[in-house]
Structure formats: structure tokens, C-alpha cells
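Continuing from the previous page of notes. For each protein in this section, the sequence appears first, followed by its C-alpha cells. Read the first protein now.
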Amino acid sequence: MLEEKRIFDSIFRGRGGTNPYEVRDSVQRAMDRDAFVFRDGAGLARALDEIRRLRETDFLHCDDQSRVYNTNLGNVLEIEGMLGVAEVVVAGALARTESRGAHFRRDFPKRDDGTWLKHTLATRTPEGPRLDYSPVTITKYQPAERHY
């Protein structure tokens, strides 16, 4: 019920000055520019700042007041989710000071199993994602660097 109230009272009937589609485009550009496969700490920090700034804008509003097939409302909710996922991805990538698989840090080009052979877990908090870690259980295959 709380989520339904938030959606209908705050978003559906809300008024904001920031175009949600411009927010979507901005987060996509930030992720493409700074959180693509090849990344570094400075770019990830810039992307995280940008994402957090975008989350604070007044984009959570719906201009279409239709209660049937309201794609505007669906898009605004997706953009809100996109910002949340982007923040978790970038915060986790910034914390992980190594390169592993598709995550390649130009400033940390080597894999570091001694420090980073663990899963990253994110929990939503009012301040942003809280990162925790859990051990990796090694079964049949020993970890090894990929060579292409």
C-alpha cells in the first residue's frame, strides 16, 4: 500500500521541472562514458556523482494522467529503477580495485584474488548502496585469469 500511495500521490499527481527522459539520457551517457568495460576510478567517481545528482532532481512526475496504458508512468518508474541499478553497479565497480572478467579497471589492470575473490552484495540505504561481501565457494574449477 505504501508503494501504491507513493506512485499515485507523488509520481502520478506530482509536478516536476526536470524532464524524466532527459534524466534517462543523462544516466545512459554517464554509464557509456565512465562505466563501460574499460573504466578507471576517476571516471567511476564522476559517474557516481552524476547519478546521485540526477536522483535528486525533480524528474519523478507523470504528465500523462491516464489510468489505462500509461506508458509515461511506466517509463518514469523504469528511469527511477535505472538510476538505482546504475548507482549500485558504479559503486560496486568503484570499490573493486582490480580487473576481473568484463570489469577492466585501467588503474588496476591486474586481477587480485587475494583481496577480491568474493561476491559483492548491495543493500539499499537512504545514503545510497551499502556494499558487503560474501566468500566465493570454489567447487570443480579453480579460479584462473581469462586469456583471449
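Done with the first. The second protein uses the same format. Note its length before scrolling.
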Amino acid sequence: MRPKAALAQVLRQDRGRLLAALVARTRDLQRAEDALQEAAASALVHWERAGLPASPQGWLLRAALRKAIDGYRRDASLSRHREAMAALAGDEAAEPDAQAIPDERLRLIFTCCHPALEQKTRVALTLRSLCGLTTAEVAAAFLDSETAMGQRLSRARAKIAGAGIAFRVPGPEDFPDRLNSVLTTVYLIFTTGYVAGPEAGADLCEEAIFLARLLVALVPDAPEVEGALALLLLTHARAAARVAPDGAALPPAAQDRALWDMTMLREGERLLETALNRRSAGPFQIKAAIAALQSATPIDWPQIVLLYARLHAFEPTAVVRLNQAVAVAEAGHLEAALAGIEALGSELDAYQPFHAARAHILARCGRTDAARSAYGRAIALAVTDADRAFLAARLAALE
């Protein structure tokens, strides 16, 4: 394998592990990222001249440790770094191989997803640090400029350093809340990719699944982590059938099941069963259970209504109530569903799925004029061509 391709493969597979090992030693995310980037640049030169080392990961870590030491030496406040330099020098002399590199990624995940950072920044920093996406790729996912995203990431690293955010796994008293923050970040990465589709550049759905698998390995026997991965797999298994040949989005009940990834679907179902058998239900397990029921034939809408009621106890939001109202309509109780949706109008007026759901239920209730108006509002708020095509077809059916 050519050095450039080998380096790209190592960074894709092990960047998060290498970066986490460097942060554990330097306690400085910015310094660790700079050192790893400089080491990667050196690798291209050295590997081209001398061939691939026996352990590319170990070579990169040792080179990065050396770059970090050089960075300390260039620092004007050299005296306060002497202890850190001595520790790094000892690690650099150890000639680590791939097996000897400790896996500090869980600590890095908790750092990137710290509640002191705003949600968008948590997502961006996680994609950059753990998944190894470039700043340009992260910027594309948010439709930001590369410069703006670079500044956001720099501010995040500075905040982590300035606020003294610890590079550690939270203690037992804080672990559940902090783990939920991590899982929410992973889920937001997935939904960002789900909405954007191929236009996002990098496949963010796959990146989220990669992170969820990593968490299952790093936090074993945790039902909410298993539930989160199950949710992503059950949803992503239907990806190939989400859009009809005419470009319109399709709900699960209208999709061609022959296009579903049944291997992924079955893996998600097994994970969900494992999580539920631990008898410690949480929001991600409930969402995964809803996704599993939506993949069944026939769909058990009354059971989904009950699950949304249970989910509302964990997440008392208007969006959960909207989804429950849609399930109530699918269960055959149109007027009750419409009453539930109308009660959410002031909270969800700017939320496109609210208007789409309201239009559909109004149409089923025979209120054509109101449905037409609601479809118009939903189309105006739609962010993808597939959603617009789907809603336009339903609007045309009214005519």
C-alpha cells in the first residue's frame, strides 16, 4: 500500500484513539491536534523515503509526542511546561506499538460533549476529533463556511482549556446525565445526516453508527447505549427505500421492503431485545422500540401510542406530543388526534413536520380547505426536495 493511502487508512481508523492518547498526555486538545497533524505531515515524507513502519499507529503517536515536546519548547512560558515535557519525553522513548496505545476515547467523547459547550459545537467537535472529518467536511454538514467552522472549533478548544474542563469520565453521580448528553450528540449527528442525505458530503449516518458502536464497546452492558445503537440501525436499515423513484419521501409503511437492509434490521432488533431485557428503560430504548414497531407488518399503532406516552415522561416536549398525536390518528382516532395537534400550534408553528402532520389529519377528517392551507405551509418550510415532492403529491391528491 502506498504511504499516502496507508496514512489515510490509519487516520480514518485510529485518529480518535491516537488523539485521545495525546490529550491524555498533554491535557490540551489544541496542542494534541496540532501535534498529530504535524506528525501526519512528517509521516508522508518519512514513509515515502523509508517505507511503512511495522506499526504505523505507534510511529504516529511517537512522532506526535515529539512534536508536542517541540511545541512546548517554542512556548514563551517554557518553565511551567517542564513537568509535562518530562512526562512526554518518557512516553516518546517507549516506542509504542498499536497494541500498547491505551484507549482513552471515552474520556475524549465526554470532553467533546461537555454540557458547557453548545449543542452544535459538541456535534462539530465530535465529528472533527473522534471521526476525523476535516474542518471542511464538518462545515459542509452544517452548510457553514470552512472559516466559520474553523473558528467555532478553535473557540471550543480554547473554552475547554480556559474553563478547565476535565479530560475524564464522569463519576457515578454525573454519569447518567453526561452519558445522555453524549448519546444525544451522536443522535444529532445521525439526524443531521438523515435530513441532508448525500448532500452532506461525509455520510453522517455512518459516522453516528460508528460512534454508537464505539460507545457500546467502551461502555458495555449499558441499556441506553445499546438502545441508541439499535435506534440508529433500525432507522438506517430503511435508508435505501426512503425516497420513491419520482423523488418523493416515503414513510416506512409505504416503502418497498425489498430495499431494506434486513441484516442491519435484525441486528438492531437483537440489540433492542438485549437492552430491554436489562429492565432499565430509557428514552433511546423507547425510540428504538417505536422504530422496530414501524418496521413490523402490520404496524401496531396502539402500542406506539403507549410508547410515546412513556417517552413523554422522559422527554416532555411538544415534538413528542406531536408524534403521539400522529400515532393516535394512525390508530383510527382522527378527531382526538386533530385536537391534540391543534393544541400544539403556538409551540410548533415554525416546525415543518407539525404542518405536514396537521395537513394529513385534516385531509383525513374531510377538512379540505384547511388541509390545503396546511400543506402549503409545510411545503414552504420543507428543507429537502424529497419532502417537498411528497407533500406536493398529497396536496395534488386533494384536488
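What the second structure shows: The chain is about 70% helix and 0% strand. The longest helix spans residues 3-26. We return to this in next week's lecture.
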